Prior knowledge:
472 residues, Beta-lactamase, Lipocalin, 2 domains, 9-stranded antiparallel sheet, 8-stranded antiparallel beta barrel, 27% strand, globular
Amino acid sequence: MTSETQEDMIDKLENMIATAMVQMKIPGLSLALIKDDRVIYARGFGARNLSDNIPSTANTLYGVGSVTKSFTALGIMQLAEQGKLDVQDPVSKYAPFKLGLEGHPIKIHHLLSHSSGIPAIGASTLPLRFGMEHSWIPMSSWEDFFLHVNGAQEEIAAEPGKRFFYNNTCYTILGKIIELISGMKYEEYVKEMILKPLKMTRSTFVKEEFVKEEDIMSSYLIRPKEGKVSVEDTDFPFYRFVYAPGGLMSSVMELSNYLIANMNGGVFEGTKILDSSLMEEMHKIQIETDIFKDIYGMKDGGRSGYGYGWIIDEDFLGHKLVSHGGNIGVASAHLAFIPDLKIGIAAAENAGQGPVPIFTGALMAMMGKDPEKEIPLFEVRKRLSKLTGKYATYKNISKGSVVEKNGLLYLESKMDDVETSYPLIPETPTMENYRFYMVPLPGGRIPVEFTVDESGKVDLYIERNRYHRIGD
């Protein structure tokens, strides 16, 4: 791209991010764009610390959540390269793991690809609740952890390899396997075998190391409160059982080094962290699923699924996309790259809002595409904003409001001191025809239609009634 084209792209991208931060109440965000073997753009937006209004930078450390899974998978593949394990080995060969179906053992491969057949059982997320509400399920030692896991035999819902269930617990087990085989603590192994070779010297899992750094995020919870949204300062959850599935703290600059290694077949600045054939195996679909297309609001395309610690889309605007997001409630991050174009993005923010379409949009912008045309969510948000507001019928005889909650519109009204709130269910996912329906009673269905004329005037039709939008 020419310098003028790149400048235009950056201007549009920055405006898109700033708008999204306002809409989603994101205090601070950082982004890096990678082309070939270098970072071509990096900056922070907003505040890494709201109380002192300290700016976010490209070097701010954030919790990256499930982005950590690819680091854990990389550690397993390094041990496989050394001949210390085989991904087709049963998990029970290395860990005190007892779940499985007769004749169909759960293998390391199944844990890596979320194809174990085990739905989420909460063993990795229970400790997160200690900071918000106490859980009385024992979860303070590895003995507690495996007691909880091995009691879930009846939860197995499919033969291994047959069904995708995203499962954080499986990655905690992989982290324990790394410890048992290497003889090192999980966080020490990742530091010595992955972070140091990639010059990710500030990245860490350990609270004591994190707080010694100067440029670090403060964590925030975004919660609805009395009809508004509150931004609450909170502590980051440092828990051992969360390390392997989602405990890494890193910056977009250091994550860029990791992306470059992934795009270069496991090599960063001449240092090899994994054989290229094994890196390619990580970036290959191991089990198909369209769930991430639905979550990310992407258009239909080719095959998609999960590799080893990575989400794979084989037809992202005509190219293979390798990506992974992470959200730990008070922070989120996203990594994505297109191997044949050798472009990628690293992004993170400090409120757990996980604006993945914004991050994916940044990658699209690098491809010369218009994210607002390619990602339905952008157009949907525009439509939602047009429709929200106060409404009234002829001479204000009946009044109500249309509000947005978690991506859905609700019709709210009050009559004789009785308040009602009904979700408006769209006829189509992208709401292009402005037609919805309400379900006031089980089995009932009332059509709801909005009309928007050329001047922007909005009317709302519910059965026999016509409402006019009269204000925000």
